[in-house]
Amino acid sequence: MVDTTTPAREVAFTYTPAELNRLISRELCGRLHELGMSLMSNAAFLLANDAVPTAAKRDRARVYLDVAAQLRLLALAELDGIAGGAR
After folding, report:
1. Rounded CA gap, 5 and 74, in Å?
2. How many angstroms from the chain centroid is the CA of residue 60?
């Protein structure tokens, strides 16, 4: 069991600039991926919603999917930047 009354030890990490850039890029890539997945989910929900007129939901879903694709490309470019093209 963990003793919650004892203060936690502080651990200091030192990163090189390249390591820090990789950490930040991976985090950014993950966030972009999550946002793209959220937009794809929104598009699927919108297309399945019968209360929204077909003409309106088709155009909006197309925009959601286009932005999701652009975010995916941006995330891949971010990974390529830190890996030198090799993931």
Report:
1. 45
2. 21
For residue 82, what are the CA distances in angstroms to 5, 13, 17, 42, 79? 41, 20, 12, 30, 5
CA-CA distance, 57 to 71, in Å (whole number)?
A: 21
Q: What secondary structure letter does DSSP report for 11? A: -
Tokens at residue 18, please? 């390249």
Per-residue tens of pLDDT for the chain, all 87 residues: 556 677 777 777 788 888 888 889 999 999 999 999 999 999 999 999 999 999 889 999 999 999 999 999 999 998 888 776 444
pTM of the model: 0.70
